[in-house]
Amino acid sequence: LLFVFFSRLIFGTLYPAYYSYKAVKSKDIKEYVKWMMYWIIFALFTTAETFTDIFLCWFPFYYELKIAFVAWLLSPYTKGSSLLYRKFVHPTLSSKEKEIDDCLVQAKDRSYDALVHFGKRGLNVAATAAVMAASKGQGALSERLRSFSMQDLSTIRGDSSSTVPPSVTVRTSSKQSQPKTSRSASEGTGSSGKC
């Protein structure tokens, strides 16, 4: 199975890709058309293969037949891709070209409308989530602020005019009251040292 995969990769994709490059580089119209027909047939083959792999993989020599088919498409003696393109693909696409173009235009319009619709919906969901997060955050902040008394808040801001009565217990008093005590003690020692 690995051999089949690498054979198809090399002979079905890389080899034609290199010769397509050479055709474009040399600007040889005949070679260019030949490789374009191959790529159209190969694209159809790959699409069909997606479904046939599901239902026909049990068939004996199924993978070997796929490699033989790709070799037949590539061969300059059989000109398989050119034959399939001229006999089947070109007449079919020519007769159905208008309907295919109309379907593609409609699909393009629908996909654009769907993209705009889902984009608006996504923005609405994001905006709602942002508002909900902000309101929850604001609620948490107001709850946090409510847990403090006005005296606690003035202490946190550093207002020296308000003093905390001894009966009021400050939740963060151990961290905040020590610097004030050490400041007042150092001010007291500093003023006594100057006199």
UniProtKB/TrEMBL annotation:
Q: Name a single GO biological process.
A: endoplasmic reticulum tubular network organization
Cellular component per GO?
cytoplasmic microtubule; endoplasmic reticulum membrane; endoplasmic reticulum tubular network
Provide the topology term for how it sits in the membrane. Multi-pass membrane protein
Question: What keyword terms does UniProt attach to this protein?
Answer: Membrane, Transmembrane, Transmembrane helix
> Which InterPro entries has this protein been placed in?
TB2_DP1_HVA22
Please verify whether the record's keywords include Isomerase: no
- The annotated region (Disordered) lies at 155-195
> Where would you find the membrane-spanning parts of this chain?
6-24, 36-61
Bias regions of kind Low complexity — which residues? 160-174
Name of protein: Receptor expression-enhancing protein
The record lists the lineage as: Eukaryota, Metazoa, Chordata, Craniata, Vertebrata
